Amino acid sequence: MSTPLMENHDGFSALAATDRVAGQLYTDPEIFEAELEKIFYKTWVWVAHESEIPDKGNFKKAMIGRQPVIVTRDRKGALNVLLNRCRHRGASICEPDKGKANGFTCPYHSWSYSLDGQLRGIPYPEGYEGVIEKKDMPLQKLRVESYAGMVFASFNQDIEPLEDFLGDAKLWMDRFMMQGAGFGIKVQGEHKFRFDGNWKIQLENTTDGYHFPIVHRSWMASVDAETADMLSFMTDENAVTHALGNGHSVAIMVPEHVELDADDGTEELQERFRHIIDELSETMPADQVRRIVRSMHGAGFNLNLFPNVAMSMSFFRVLRPISVNETEVQHMALGLDGGPESVNRERLRIHEHFQGPFGFGTPDDAEAWDRVQRGANGNPQMPIMVNRGLNRETTGTEGWKTSHVTDESGMRESYSQWKKMMGND
């Protein structure tokens, strides 16, 4: 029997069904352009972690779809997200990726702006007397709100409050931050790379436990037995995925590390961290040492926040759609803000081993993503299947659709939100 094709009779939303999505979601430039307008320019998009802009005057650049923005902390300590575009002739006013400044000055004609986007100065203003008022020409400001240190922005001024959009994901964001072990969380470093594939391929990957022991076989063979055993979740019935609503989902791979603050004392600390244990024990009580060492690998889950950020065990994975067949991925390693330097150094080495540019994990993932894109060009109307685990998906008392972590409940949740936002209304 041939595989049924999916036809676009009722707009783009018809291309996503409960158990499958059309392959052209990866390949059709028209769909990609509509996604920018209907998703990335309409909903909340992650732009920063507060540790990147801790002090007044700090800023960082970010992108929402194709539109460049600046995230700032102004003189009053408030967060702002501003379009990186001078109101005069449209030149970008900020080029460094991050830094500290008193404001921004356009290099073209020196129009200058404050950190909250107000137009402060115009050189040779005689030509504008009676023409414009500075108060009427601020930088475009986006809606900005944060939760658990995660900063989101939206071009849609009428959008629902961020906390409503995050919904049940807030519980998991709070749990994710427990890896600070009593310290705050900070971004330690980052790197970016691009792959030749559609952004949704990466969106799916963070909630795809099915591929892990197959694609990451080389990484599993490179780590100590305790770490390999910790991530051997294929037959662990407590390793599950919850669909949290609004496109968000959480994939639990290490159930005993869901709530790192909860510790019954039975888990043995990994011997690979003996040098850390010995060092910290010289100055810290045993319970604090244990709390820090249990958190070395981060939280025991990947939290996917639709549409562009994953809080993935011990790092953030941020995706940026470049074109229908190209995506930029940013990995941000996390550490303890004010915590022991040796701990943060060890966390960086763990991050590099899997997610780093020369790590075992990311190159393998990127090869798989490239191949999905190449394959999807063969008969793009043929569906991509997202039906794994439908036969064992249940709904718990929280209202979360739940199945095994190797199932595709998280992908179905993402496409449910995609379908909702890509409708014709």
List the helices and strands and how they pair.
Layout: E1 20-22, H1 29-40, E2 45-49, E3 58-64, E4 67-73, E5 79-83, E6 98-100, E7 103-105, E8 112-114, E9 119-121, E10 143-147, E11 150-154, H2 162-166, H3 169-176, E12 184-195, H4 199-205, H5 212-215, H6 217-222, H7 225-230, E13 240-245, E14 248-252, H8 274-281, H9 286-294, E15 301-305, E16 309-312, E17 315-323, E18 326-337, H10 341-354, H11 362-376, E19 383-385, E20 394-395, E21 401-404, H12 409-421
Antiparallel strand pairs: 1-19, 2-11, 3-4, 3-6, 4-5, 7-8, 8-9, 10-11, 12-18, 13-14, 13-21, 14-15, 15-16, 16-17, 17-18, 20-21
Explain this structure to me?
The chain is of the alpha+beta class and 425 residues long. It has 2 domains: 106 residues, Rieske Iron-sulfur Protein; 256 residues, Naphthalene 1,2-dioxygenase Alpha Subunit, Chain A, domain 1 (Alpha-Beta Complex), CATH 3.90.380.10. Helix content is 25%, strand content 26%. It contains 12 helices and 21 strands. The radius of gyration is 23 Å and the shape is globular. The N terminus is likely disordered. GO terms for molecular function: 2 iron, 2 sulfur cluster binding; dioxygenase activity; iron ion binding; monooxygenase activity; oxidoreductase activity, acting on paired donors, with incorporation or reduction of molecular oxygen.
